[in-house]
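Readers outside the structure-tokenisation community will struggle with the description of the input data as it stands. What matters is that the chain and its backbone geometry are given together, residue for residue. For illustration, here is how one protein appears when written out as sequence plus structure tokens:

…
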Amino acid sequence: MKRVSIFLDSSALIAGVISENGAAHVLLQLGETGDVSLKISEFVFNETTRSIGRKSPENLENIQKEIEKARIVILQDPSHEEIQANLYLMEDPDDVPILLAAIKAKVDYLATHDRKHFLADPKVAENAGIKIGTPGDVLAWIRENLSSQ
């Protein structure tokens, strides 16, 4: 099996940094061992640091450490023009930059905990042409693909 490429949105990255239990943290560990390739965008990085700074400032310094440890690649954000041209991809225009960055990165899976904007609407994944699910869904998919090898 080729190395799996996963895009983390801020909800998945925050969950992985703050909690040492759970699927999001396991994804970070798989990135650390090099078993998966993890990617985020500049937008996700900034959103994550803002959110952790507000909700859990004691974990702020852990973000950069976890990104380095898990070998997370930070990708350039899509341009304003690209975002405007792709607003049809989903209802929430604020999340289009995240979805578009994942599409452009040609990842296998976008990991998120955002039910309202990503998980509850199957058309988002259909429009994007990539799999979208929770970190737990991603781990189940990885296991499934490993067992079918």
User: Anything to note?
Assistant: The two ends are 7 Å apart (CA to CA). The chain is about 55% helix and 15% strand. The longest strand covers residues 36-41.
